[in-house]
């Protein structure tokens, strides 16, 4: 398709340009001849008159100006039509010509309006109580419908951009491993999400490689050991607060664990990133929580060029939040940098910021030559990213784990028995954590059914072959994690059920294709914080199981929905009973 499509595209663009130029010529030169040389028009020789005019007399400055303005308007209109109609229609024809099926392109909005309508309708309905884990149609109603109607390899429209759904794990791996450097981060997502996070997650090519090399050492398992006290301190604070709340009430206490876990993971990340100055980091966590909701709203409109520049209330507030976050971070980082330069005590190097600054100071290019690391502004962006990536996702994992263990009390009991056997009433340590088999199986099964990140999005950077189909540049490619995690062809007939036993012999034996378990993505861009997140989750769940039994409140409504990550729509009310 592509060579032809591209040459067709070129021809079409050239054709459009020719049309615009001809029209401009006519307007610039023939239109004045109409008004000023009526006799020429009357005898039907406008063009001849225009050319004669050119030869014999110059047009007035006003008519030239009007002509230029009209030409500009026409040129602009042609650009808009090219962007919002001709280009998407050409891409659609090219995809269909190769046998791909999908939704019909709709002017400018593509499927965005339909997606909003379907999502609003899905969110108004609760999940069926007889199949509580069957949440995909609610979380992603458009994709659910499209796969049923058009098959597993199909396309939808993100505004004017075709979005290909890749559900085959083999092909998904090619996308995630960035085969031949063809798949980059999506531009559409990046423009809006920059206000929420930047850094390594939105970079590509050499810049990405450099940032990733500087960050990697901070996330080594060895370094995580040093952060254990910070994790334990944050979890102990949570447990202490819960114990006081239960003690003040008779028998059991109802709590919204969603907001509890958001604070916990905000606290953990503040301590892990900033060490002793973690109190200052807490304000960032609150600002980021508001920014997530605002950025999600902005997705509905900000794909339209120029929309993010309009001074709407949402746009202004998002920019203000971003400014405040950066100011707080700049203050903390500058202080720390100064302290390190002056050789102040090394304790501050045990946190993520200290390790990042140290790795940055020692940075050497891959060719071995010494080179400058990343700038202060780039360090700020990385810290902002830690907040987003490390807070929301882990809070989501902990929340759904408590929900699912409440729905399946037999697994709650098994997990508690294991925790008590390994740690007794002591605080968890690293060697004990590595022996937790049931807890690990439960966490994997929760990550399978309720993956915090639902999609991995990329765009084709150039003409790209994938699974026998040629895609033009700038097509969006989406790997739907939750869909792949629930595909009965990969996981068997009980794919929709909670069964941690499937992970008893490890991830590689849990399904027919080991690459089908991708909660942390795969390949070079795999989540840098996965060990961090799993350690935090294992510590928190162990400490909770040691001290409390829990069940869902009768008021709880099971309603997962997608707000960049998989939130509970109405919070999660849980009844806690101290053991
Ligand atoms: C349960 C918890 C977590 C889940 C499910 C998760 C999931 C993911 C996924 C799916 C990606 C890949 C996105 C893509 O390829 O487009 C990713 C990337 C990333 N995550 Fe996580 N994450 C979690 C926790 C964390 C934590 C705790 C941190 C840091 C403290 C972190 C930092 C990052 C960073 C920096 C990237 C970008 C890596 C790159 O592009 O090279 N994540 N995460």
TrEMBL record:
Task: Give the GO biological process terms.
Answer: brassinosteroid homeostasis; brassinosteroid metabolic process
Where's it found, cell-wise?
Membrane
Question: What are the required cofactors?
Answer: heme
InterPro entries attached to this UniProt entry:
Cyt_P450 (IPR001128), Cyt_P450_CS (IPR017972), Cyt_P450_E_grp-I (IPR002401), Cyt_P450_sf (IPR036396), Cytochrome_P450_Monooxygen (IPR050665)
Q: Which GO terms describe its molecular function?
A: heme binding; iron ion binding; monooxygenase activity; oxidoreductase activity, acting on paired donors, with incorporation or reduction of molecular oxygen
Specify which residues bind heme according to the UniProt entry for this protein.
527
Stated membrane topology is: Single-pass membrane protein
Q: What is its main location?
A: membrane
Write down any Gene Ontology CC term: membrane
Superkingdom as given in the UniProt entry: Eukaryota
Membrane-spanning residues: 62-86
Q: State if Oxidoreductase is listed as a keyword.
A: yes
- Keywords for this protein: Heme, Iron, Membrane, Metal-binding, Monooxygenase, Oxidoreductase, Transmembrane, Transmembrane helix
| Pfam families named among the record's database cross-references | p450 (PF00067)
Q: Which family does it belong to?
A: Belongs to the cytochrome P450 family.
Protein name as it appears in the record: Cytochrome P450
Q: What is the native source organism of this protein?
A: Sorghum bicolor
């Amino acid at each position: 398709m592509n060579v032809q499509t591209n040459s067709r595209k070129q021809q079409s663009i050239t054709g459009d340009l020719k049309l615009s130029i001809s029209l401009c010529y006519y307007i610039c030169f023939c239109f004045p001849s109409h008004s000023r040389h009526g006799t020429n028009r009357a005898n039907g020789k406008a063009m001849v008159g225009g050319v004669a005019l050119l030869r014999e007399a110059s047009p007035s400055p006003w008519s030239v100006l009007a002509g230029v303005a009209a030409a500009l308007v026409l040129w602009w209109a042609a650009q808009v039509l090219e962007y919002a109609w001709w280009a998407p229609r050409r891409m659609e024809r090219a995809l269909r010509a190769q046998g791909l099926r999908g939704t019909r392109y709709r002017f400018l909005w593509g499927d965005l309006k339909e997606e909003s309508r379907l999502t609003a309708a899905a969110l108004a309905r609760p999940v069926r109580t007889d199949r509580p884990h069957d949440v995909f149609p609610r979380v992603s109603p458009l994709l659910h419908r499209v796969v049923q109607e058009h098959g597993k390899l199909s396309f939808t429209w993100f505004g004017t951009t075709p979005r290909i759904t890749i559900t085959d794990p083999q092909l998904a791996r090619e996308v995630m491993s960035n085969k031949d450097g063809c798949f980059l981060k999506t531009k559409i997502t990046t423009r809006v999400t920059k206000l929420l996070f930047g850094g390594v997650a939105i970079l590509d090519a050499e810049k990405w490689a450099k940032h990733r090399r500087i960050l990697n050492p901070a996330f080594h398992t060895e370094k995580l050991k040093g952060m254990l006290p910070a994790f334990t301190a944050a979890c102990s604070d949570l447990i202490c607060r819960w114990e006081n709340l239960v003690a003040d009430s008779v028998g059991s206490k109802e709590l919204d664990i969603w907001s509890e876990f958001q604070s916990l993971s905000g606290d953990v990340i503040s301590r892990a990133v900033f060490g002793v100055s973690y109190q200052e980091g807490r304000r960032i966590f609150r600002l980021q929580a508001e920014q997530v909701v605002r950025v999600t709203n902005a997705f509905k409109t900000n794909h339209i060029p120029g929309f993010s520049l309009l001074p709407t209330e949402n746009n202004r507030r998002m920019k203000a939040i971003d400014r405040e976050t950066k100011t707080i971070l700049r203050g903390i980082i500058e202080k720390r940098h100064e302290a390190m330069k002056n050789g102040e005590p090394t304790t501050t190097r045990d946190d993520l910021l200290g390790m990042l600054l140290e790795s940055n100071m020692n940075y050497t290019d891959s060719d071995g030559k010494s080179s400058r690391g990343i700038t202060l502004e780039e360090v700020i962006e990385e810290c902002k990213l830690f907040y987003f990536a490390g807070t929301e996702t882990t809070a989501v994992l902990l929340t759904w784990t408590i929900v699912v263990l409440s729905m399946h009390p037999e697994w709650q009991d098994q997990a508690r028995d294991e925790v008590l056997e390994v740690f007794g009433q002591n605080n968890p340590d690293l060697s004990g954590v590595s022996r937790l088999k049931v807890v690990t199986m439960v966490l994997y099964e929760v990550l399978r059914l309720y993956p915090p990140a639902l999609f991995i999005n990329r765009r084709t950077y150039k003409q790209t072959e994938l699974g026998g189909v040629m895609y033009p540049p700038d097509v969006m490619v989406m790997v739907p994690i939750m869909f792949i995690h629930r595909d009965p062809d990969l996981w068997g007939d009980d794919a929709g059920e909670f069964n941690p036993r499937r992970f008893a012999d490890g991830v590689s034996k849990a399904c027919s294709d080991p690459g089908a378990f991708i909660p942390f993505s795969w390949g070079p861009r795999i989540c840098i914080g996965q060990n961090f997140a799993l350690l935090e989750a294992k510590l928190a769940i162990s400490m909770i199981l040691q001290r409390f039994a829990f069940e869902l409140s009768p008021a709880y409504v099971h309603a997962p929905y997608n707000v960049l990550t998989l939130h509970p729509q109405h919070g999660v009310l849980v009844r806690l009973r101290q053991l």
